[in-house]
Amino acid sequence: MEQAKVYDYIIAGAGAAGLSLAYHLLIHPDFCQKQILIIDRLPKVENDRTWCFWEIEPGLFESCVVQEWEHLKLASKEWSGVVDTHPYKYKMIQSDEFYKFCWAKIKKFSNVDVVLDTIKSIAFDGTVVCETNIFNGNKIFNSALFHIPKNTKKHHLLQHFKGWYVNFEYPMLDPKTATLMDFDIDQGGDCRFIYVLPLSKTKALVEFTVFSKTLLQEDHYDVALLKYLNDKYPNQKYNIENIEFGVIPMTNAAIDSFDNGTTVISIGTAGYASKASTGYTFSFIQRQCRQIIKYLENGPKSKLVLKPTTKFQFYDAVLLNVIATSKYEGWKIFTRLFKRLPTQLVLKFLNEETKFFQDLRIITTVNIWHFTKTAIEELKAG
C-alpha cells in the first residue's frame, strides 16, 4: 500500500494570510523547496476586498499597491483637517492584484500543490480533513477554522463595512489626499464613518464603516453611501463599478483556533492579526509571516508567539470598552488624536511600535479621566 504523502507545510486558507505566508516561504532559500500544500474552498481571484496599511519602506507586495497617499483627511463635527503622514505612506492593495501576484509566484514551483476543498477539521497530529480529501503535514498554518466564543467579561464588537467603487463623470477628486475617517455623518448610536480613497480625479472607493455589536439591515449601508455622495458631491453623476462588503471581529476575547503552537499554528485573524481596536490586518499579517520565518530558521527548540504584546492587548481592551459602552464617543477619540498629536506618532501607536512614554502621551491626549477609569475596570475584569 502506497504511503500517503506528508507535506512539510499545509496552508489552510488562501486569503491574505495564507498567500502572504506562501510567498514569504517561496522567496526564502531554505524553504522554497519544501513540500507545500495550499487548501481553500474557493479559487481566490476576485476583487472582493481591499487592504489598507501604512509603511515607510517599500514592502514585499509593493507591486500590488494600486494607490498611495501622504496626506490624510479627517473630519467630525468638532474638527476637520488634512494631516501629513511622512515618512509613512498610506497604501491600498486590491485583492485581485494581490491574488494574481501570489498565484503567479506559486505556479513557478512544482513542489507546491493547490487543492480546492472545504476544510472540516484540523488535528494536532497534522491531519487536515476536508470534504473530499484527507491530508497530512508536519506543520499546519491555519487561517480557515476558528471561532470566538462569547465571553461576558470581554468586549465583542464588529467592524462592518460596505464600499462602492464610484466613477464620476467629471474630475472632482484629489488623488493625493485620502479621507481616512469622516465622522460628520449620523452616528446612529454607534461609531460610524465614511472613508474615501481616490484612485484618480474621477474614481474612488467610498466606504461606509460601522463599529457596533450587530450588523445593520442590508439597505442601511446603501442609504448611508447614497446620502454621503449626494451631500458631498451634489448633482454629480457617477456610476458604481464594483461593490465590496466585509465584517471583521473586534474583540479582546480569546480566539478558539485549534492552535497548539507547534504542529498547528494559526495565522491571520485566527492568529490575532486583526487589530482588535481598529480592524487593520494586512501589515500585522506581514509581521506574523516574518516571525514565522524566523521561527522556522531557528529550528524546533524555538518558541513562536504571534499574539500582540500584553501592553497592546490591554490598550485595545480599554478602547473597545470605551466604544462599546459609549463612555466617550468614538469620533472624538480618533479625531482628537490626529488633531492634537503628530500623525507619525499616532500611526506608530496604531502599528504597536511605541514605547511607554509615547503611549502615555497618546492616552492623556484624549480624556485621561474616562480612560483611567476604564483601564481600572479592565484590570479588575482580568
Order of helices and strands: EHEEEEEEHEEEEEEEEHEEHHHHHH
What is the second-level CATH architecture of the largest domain? 3-Layer(bba) Sandwich
What are the low-pLDDT stretches, counting only 5+ consecutive residues below 50?
Answer: none
Proportion of beta-strand residues: 25-35%
How many strands in all? 17
Query: Which fold name corresponds to the CATH topology of the largest domain?
Result: FAD/NAD(P)-binding domain
CATH top-level class of the largest domain:
Alpha Beta
Structural class: alpha/beta
Query: Could you give me the name of the CATH homologous superfamily of the largest domain?
Result: FAD/NAD(P)-binding domain
Mean pLDDT: 94
Backbone CA Rg = 22 Å
Shape: globular
State the helicity in percent bands: 25-40%
Q: Supply the number of helical segments.
A: 9
